Amino acid sequence: MIKRELDEKLIQQLKEKMDEGLLPQWVITDPDIYELEKEKIFAKSWQFLAHETELKEAGSYVTRWMVNDPILLVKNRKEEIKAYLNSCTHRGTQLCTADRGNKKTFTCPYHGWSYNLDGDLVGIVAGNKVYGEEMCKKEWGLREVPRVESYRGMIFGCLDPEAESLEDYLGEMKWYFDMMLGRGDGGMEVIGLPQRWVAKANWKSTAENFAADPYHVQTTHRSTVEMGISLKIRFMLGMDTKLL
């Protein structure tokens, strides 16, 4: 009850500021706001995971993240793409630490439990002696991401089994995906491993920076103008080069 009251108070404070046309800076750094976002946004939203060309054949897998949850994406023998928590159901150890690979089974490096491409528990080291004959393996399969759908080769996952379809969720954004990814009949292909950077920043800052803040370009990216490598961008943005 106390947590709910605190959550409602935070949301009300934020609403009052936004009604004034303001976004308070504490929204970016407040840990309670972030916990609310994980519950009310990321637990219910579709999140991009991978591209279909990264999983070309049965046994192919890649490892990704959904906020703090490690995810294992696999193509099974039926050519279906499955997504599981990259976590052994025994003691929670991460099954795969590599970015990608190809396996017939996934074996936990801690106690040796193994799972097939459909997430079924198929092997337990000394299982009969440790757990007895009555243990039901079907109850200990990998925990599956409830919703996995693709659009233009892009694979998304959602933790909410009752969420709207991916196409409905994307809405008018599909037009941009069609324009970027539907240029040829063969589609697009991912080459090489993903490049990752870790930055101490809030996700909202990144989203705003790329989606709604061209104002920062003249200052943050001034060096590209001075080096003469962003001439076309200046004209596209309608910027006066004399001012730069």
TrEMBL record:
Gene3D superfamilies: 2.20.25.10, Naphthalene 1,2-dioxygenase Alpha Subunit, Chain A, domain 1 (3.90.380.10). PROSITE patterns: RIESKE, RING_HYDROXYL_ALPHA. It comes from the Bacteria. InterPro entries: ARHD_Rieske_2Fe_2S, Rieske_2Fe-2S, Rieske_2Fe-2S_sf, Rng_hydr_dOase-A. SUPFAM superfamilies: Bet v1-like, ISP domain. It holds the Pfam family Rieske. One of its GO terms (molecular function) is dioxygenase activity. Residues 47-157 form the Rieske domain. Keywords: 2Fe-2S, Dioxygenase, Iron, Iron-sulfur, Metal-binding, Oxidoreductase. Belongs to the bacterial ring-hydroxylating dioxygenase alpha subunit family. This is Biphenyl dioxygenase alpha subunit. It comes from Halalkalibacter wakoensis JCM 9140.
